[in-house]
Specification:
By secondary structure, this protein is an alpha+beta fold. The chain contains 2 helices and 4 strands. The chain starts with a strand and ends with a helix.
Length: 81
């Protein structure tokens, strides 16, 4: 399973930045990027990031973009952390 989720966050101190969560083979990699011409760097997810990831995954299940089994795997990743 290889799935990628992405969204934008706003922070008063750090400004606006893009967050990406890439799930592959039971592992998750969090990265972030501040501007258009800046490199991706590792990101430590907050509770809000995990909530947003679960929210995004829930939206994809009814549209059959991910299977219920893949959604369960994402929830298990959150519980394991």
């Amino acid at each position: 399973m290889s799935i990628e989720f992405g969204w934008w966050n706003k922070d008063p101190e750090q400004g606006k930045y893009q967050v990406s969560a890439s799930i592959h083979g039971g592992n998750i990699e969090w990265t972030r990027k501040q501007g258009h011409h800046t490199p991706w760097e590792s990101h430590v997810p907050s509770e809000a990031d995990w909530d947003r990831l679960i929210e995004e995954a829930e939206r994809r299940v009814p549209r059959r973009l991910i299977s219920p089994k893949q959604f369960d795997a994402i929830r298990q990743l959150r519980e394991m952390r």
